[in-house]
Amino acid sequence: MPLYQFTVIIERQPEGGYLVTIPALPGCYTEGRTLEEAREMAADAIRAYCASLLKHGEPIPVEEATEQFVGRLSIALEPA
User: Fold this and answer.
1) Model confidence pLDDT, tens digit, residues 60-78
2) Pairing relation of β-strands 29-32 and 9-12?
């Protein structure tokens, strides 16, 4: 069974819980109450999304490591 890697963005939500986005899979979002649950839900969402792609004869996207950057940038801004 081939192993695929996907960038997963997990963001804490102000109202509680975590929102998960998988950029390489358009429209693939999920959420979890805890960080661990969000990770588990992400894996389930990726499996379901890819199963649907295969069912419809579409390829699973292969994400290149250089296609994504997730991090923080410090930007100096002039005061308003």
Assistant:
1) 998 876 666 777 778 888 8
2) unpaired
Residue in this structure with the two tokens 């292969």, named with its chain if needed? 62
Structurally, at CATH architecture level, domain 9-65 sits in 2-Layer Sandwich (3.30)
Pairwise CA distance, residues 54 & 60, whole Å: 7
Place of tokens 């991090």: 71
**Whole-structure pTM value:** 0.81
Which residues make beta-bridge pairs with 19?
11, 31
Task: Give every CB contact of residue 19 below 8 A, 6+ residues apart in sequence.
Answer: 10, 11, 13, 29, 31, 38
